[in-house]
């Protein structure tokens, strides 16, 4: 009798162990040996060709190969993106570097991890029958200005660098959405555009060519597209961020080689996209503006670049006690 009871108990134990081992084996088969580290990225604005390399990198598995599970999201302005970063809602934000530098100067606990555009590709455009192609010709003309417009924010610095009297420029305050319609209707002579994104779009939609006054060529050099991370993120997961930046470098290089594939990848995520031809023009034009990494890793930042940006910001008002360049950026995440 005793032996029968023991055999029943043993049989029950073996059945339980068998079920546990089966469940464990099933879990091991359905779960990868490792899971990629999640990285949430927020752009400063809506989708555009400028962001194409991120989508190509994701589609081609460059982020996965660097053990990064990248989640890409559109934005609603640089300040909102930076705020979400500080709150811990994002791991990386892609914003114009000048906005991040201004925010850090004011005490925001973030750092620039890479600057991909050392010079923002922007310009004033005018119609060919009233062409403005050099700074002196801007006097006596009307210029659309908008809140947050980087070019017109630093118009004073542009005027000073080119011996232009800013008081002789008629500055017309316009909502950004009205800028192009007002320009096309002849109610304003000049508007600010990004040559890599806006210019191809306006030319395609209007069927016209425009006179272009390239601002960096005339002394208005503003650091552009940048990856910004929080101080907390640097402290808690530097290896994840380093792998993200390595994959992004690979994505930039691949996009230069294969803009058509970058276009296709971006269009898959862009529900209300313009034509394939236009998006590819934006992607090619953007690649021409990005750091090549010929001497240092792509995105590498120098003290001089930060100091020049601070000089520019200070022309637009008092910035308080100037922080040292090391407060604004780190290159450690770009180093292998």
UniProtKB/TrEMBL annotation:
<protein>
    <submittedName>
        <fullName>NitT/TauT family transport system substrate-binding protein</fullName>
    </submittedName>
</protein>
<dbReference type="InterPro" id="IPR015168">
    <property type="entry name" value="SsuA/THI5"/>
</dbReference>
<feature type="signal peptide">
    <location>
        <begin position="1"/>
        <end position="35"/>
    </location>
</feature>
<dbReference type="InterPro" id="IPR027939">
    <property type="entry name" value="NMT1/THI5"/>
</dbReference>
<feature type="domain" description="SsuA/THI5-like">
    <location>
        <begin position="53"/>
        <end position="262"/>
    </location>
</feature>
<keyword id="KW-0732">Signal</keyword>
<dbReference type="Pfam" id="PF09084">
    <property type="entry name" value="NMT1"/>
</dbReference>
<dbReference type="GO" id="GO:0009228">
    <property type="term" value="P:thiamine biosynthetic process"/>
</dbReference>
């Amino acid at each position: 009798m005793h032996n029968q009871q023991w055999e029943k108990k043993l049989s029950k134990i073996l059945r339980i162990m068998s079920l546990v081992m089966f469940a464990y084996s099933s879990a091991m088969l359905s779960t990868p040996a490792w899971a990629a580290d999640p990285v949430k990225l927020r752009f400063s604005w809506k989708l555009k060709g400028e962001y194409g390399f991120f989508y190509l990198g994701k589609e081609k598995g460059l982020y996965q190969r660097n053990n990064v599970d990248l989640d890409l999201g559109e934005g609603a302005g640089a300040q909102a993106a930076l705020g979400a970063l500080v709150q811990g809602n994002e791991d990386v934000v892609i914003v114009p570097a000048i906005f991040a530098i201004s925010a850090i100067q004011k005490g925001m606990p973030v750092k620039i991890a890479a600057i991909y555009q050392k010079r923002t590709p922007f310009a004033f455009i005018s119609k060919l029958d009233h062409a403005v192609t050099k700074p002196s010709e801007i006097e006596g003309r009307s210029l659309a200005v908008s809140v947050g417009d980087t070019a017109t924010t630093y118009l004073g610095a542009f005027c000073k660098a080119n011996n232009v009297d800013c008081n002789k420029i008629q500055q017309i305050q316009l909502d950004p959405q009205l800028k192009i319609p007002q320009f096309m209707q002849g109610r304003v002579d000049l508007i600010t555009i990004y040559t890599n994104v806006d210019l191809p779009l306006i030319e395609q939609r209007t069927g016209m060519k425009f006179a272009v006054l390239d601002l960096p060529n005339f002394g208005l050099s503003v650091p552009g597209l940048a990856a910004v991370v929080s101080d907390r993120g640097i402290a808690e997961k530097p290896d994840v961020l380093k792998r993200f930046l390595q994959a992004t470098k690979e994505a930039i290089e691949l996009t230069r080689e294969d803009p058509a594939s970058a276009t296709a990848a971006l269009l898959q995520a862009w529900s209300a996209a313009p034509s394939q031809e236009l998006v590819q023009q934006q992607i090619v034009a953007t690649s021409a503006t990005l750091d090549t990494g010929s001497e240092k890793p792509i995105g590498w930042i120098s003290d001089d670049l930060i100091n020049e940006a601070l000089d520019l910001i200070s022309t637009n008002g008092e910035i308080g006690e100037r922080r040292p360049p090391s407060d604004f950026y780190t290159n450690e995440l770009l180093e292998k």
